[in-house]
Structures are given as structure tokens and as C-alpha cells.
What we know:
Bound molecules: uridine-diphosphate-N-acetylglucosamine
CATH superfamily of the largest domain: Spore Coat Polysaccharide Biosynthesis Protein SpsA, Chain A
CATH topology of the largest domain: Spore Coat Polysaccharide Biosynthesis Protein SpsA, Chain A
Helix content: 10-25%
Amino acid sequence: MPSSLQIAILAAGRGKRMRCALPKVLQSLGGRPLLAHVLSTARKLEPRAICIVDGGGGEVRERFAAADLTWARQDPPRGTGDALRCALTGLGADGVTLVLFGADPLARVETLRQVAERAQEGILSLLTVELDDPTGYGRIVRGADGKVAAIIEHKDATPKQRAIREINTGIMAAPTAAFARWLPRIDDRNVGGEYYLTDVIAMAVADGVPVETTHPASADETLGINSKRDLAHLERIYQRAQADALLDAGVTLADPARIDVRGTLACGSDVTIDVGCIFEGDVVLGDAVSVGAHSILRDARVGAGTAIAPYSHIDGAAIGARCCIGPYARIRPGTSLADEVHIGNFVEVKASDLGERSKANHLAYVGDSTVGRDVNIGAGTITCNYDGANKHRTVIEDDVHIGSDTQLVAPVTIGRGATIGAGTTVWRDVEPGVLVFNQKTQASKADYQRPRKKIKE
Length: 457
Ligand code: UD1
């Protein structure tokens, strides 16, 4: 795309129908704000400038501050025509300006490129689409010659115009100088009492500037959001597209309608994902990884051949190859597991490194620990890492065996090859190779009577 392209993103509308304090463009789709989707597509066009028009609140500006963006404030919002007039104050006076809406996130780069390229020829280029139900949209009114004559907003349309199914998506492009000529002439004498950007179409026709239309590959590309219902509908479309891309890449999904990718998910070959899984941030799954039902993975890397059993949570962790995780495992940020590690049910691991073949198969807490190779951590083992004020590290060297129901009071080091007897509280460092246990006696009482339930009268 030649560098004469600049982009105006209109994002100052109040979005009252969302019934929500968060500005509409900050609502989340696939884990990212709507505006983030629009911006990443806009940037792929490599424009010379992008100007975002925001409202009075300032949250949008704060959230998206970046060196390649300019900002224009529109307060109060007085319509899309007024918004574009504000945007032009932050853009150059020449070249072509492409207009995008900040809450319409699904347009493809190729589609936008086509719209913008046509405007390079000096025409007013519109993206339009035919809808089965065009209610609410501006209608494309064509003359007897089939050429676009005007856009009439739904509110202002006659019953005959409302029957038109070709609608304005809002995406348009024209030479910037033409927009600058037309915008000051727009008025607010309409049912909405707003400065409609769509009024420029009739002005272009009057000026003899050709108005041409481009259509998207799919009507889904042009869907915008005005309500939480729209947002939920779009989320499903977006997620289905993510699922289809995974299927196309050879991933086996138990049900493509029951996966949510709220970020990026990169998969090797022969990956299997069961129902109800959520992937957030950046997740990478190696070859032949299987992810059990209802697992949640955020910012995680999982090595080849690892099996994650159902209901496991993995957050901010690197997991090696051929590991067995879960079911019901919780792996927290700062954790790194080497190859063939086993983390079983109800085991929580935080900010810890575990060496090859080490195992914590049941009911344990391993926090702030460095664990060597071939270590077995018995059921009910707890690293007591917090003294109420500070966190301390536990070091467990290679080939240590820790019996069930053991507390390791950090800071503490268990030497290589040591064995810790069941039910031991370890509060001093343990020498390599020794057996450590606490002296306890086992008492028994022969005449013990269990309490019995009182029988109610
Ligand atoms: C607009 C179009 C309509 C089209 C529809 C497609 C106009 C007059 N109408 O209608 O033809 O079919 O989009 O969805 O353009 N905005 C501002 N400032 C404002 C008003 C809006 O920045 O004062 C921004 C909004 O944040 C939003 C975009 O412009 O990103 C569109 O606003 P919206 O109210 O959704 O437009 P519609 O009335 O639905």
C-alpha cells in the first residue's frame, strides 16, 4: 500500500446500549479489546498515520498509547461526520483517508486494502454488503443507472428505502481533500440530530466524484457491536474462526464449538484438545500434546508428548516433554518442569523448577522450590515457604524420596539421595543419603468407645 494512506478510527461513540461503564471499544473479543483487533488490522495496511478519535473519558488513550498513533478528542459525540472531521485534525491534508469504526473488529486486511486502493483512483470507495435483515443500518440508495446516489440512515428512511437490503458497513475511503471539502457542509437536520458521515455520499455524487462499492468475502467481516448480545454473537463467530484455523492446521478438537482461544495458540502436529478448554495469552503446545477437558492454559509452553488430564490449570509455566499433568493440577507462574515430570491430582506448584522424572502425584504444595531429578514427593507434602512476612526457598536434590504428609520448613535443603519418613516436619537441612524422621510414639487404648449418635425420641 503506498504511504499516502492514512487511517481514521472512530471510537468516541458512547455505546449506551452496552449498559456498561467500560467504553465500547474496550470490550473484549477473544481476550483482547475490540479496538486492539481493529488496530492490528489497520497496522497491517502500513499506513503513514493512524488517528483515533476518542471521547471525553481518556481510558482509551491511556490503554492504547503508542508512538505510531495520533489522537483527536470528540466531546460530546455529535455523529460520525463530526468524528471524522475531528480525526482529520490529527492527519495530513493529502493522500487517501480510510475510515474504520473502533468497535467493528472482524474486517480482513485484504478487504480493507481493496477499499483503500480504489480511493487512490480519486473515487469515494464504500464497503457495502447485502443482509437478510438490514434493520438499523444505513441503506445504499442506487439510481436508475445502478450507481450509488446516497446513504439513508434507517431512522430517516422511507418504508420503500427500508426494504433495501444493501447496507453501509461504515468502512469507506476517499481522497482526504474530498473529505475535507464535504465534512464542513454536513448538518444535523435529521431524525438522529447528528452529523452523519454518510451525507458525504450525496455530496460526492453532486460533485461528480464517482462512488464505488466493494463487498467483503463474508458478511461476518462487517459485524459491529452495539449491545452485549452483539458482543456474545461476535465472540462465537470469532471463536469458531479460531477453531477452524486449528482444525485446518491438523489439530484434533473434540468439539470446535467448545474451545476458547483468548490470545494465540500455536500447536505442533497431532495435538488433541478435549471440550471446554480455554487458552489465554500465548500458549504453545508441542507435537502430540493432549489437553484434557476443561483445562485452562495461560502463557504456557508444553513439550512434545505431554498429556494434560482434565481440569488442570497451567499459568505462566514451561512444561517439558512427555510429562503427565493432572487431573486437577494447578501449575502457577514461574514454574518450569523438565521432561517426564508427573504432577498429579490436587498438586499445586508455584515458582519452582522440577528436574527430569520427578513426581508429585497427589495432594501436595511445591512453592519456591528447586527440585532435582528422580525426586518422589509423597502425598500431602507441603513446602512451608512463607513465614508470615517473607518467602523462602526449598532445595530438594536429586533422588530424594519424601514420605507422605511431610512439611519442609523453608529455607531448607534436602541433600541428594536422602529419604524423609512419612509425617516428618523438616526444619533443618538434611545430609545427603540419610533417612530423616521425627520421633513419635504410637499409643493405643484397648477400652476405647466410639461416640454414638443420640437416638431422637
Ligand atoms: C453507522 C452508519 C450507518 C452504518 C452503520 C454500520 C453513520 C451516520 N451511520 O451507524 O450507515 O450502517 O454505522 O454499523 O455513519 N462514533 C464516534 N463519534 C460519534 C458517533 C459515533 O466516534 O459521534 C463512532 C463510534 O464509536 C463507532 C462508529 O463511530 O465506532 C459508528 O457509530 P455508531 O453509533 O455505531 O453508528 P451507527 O449509528 O450504527
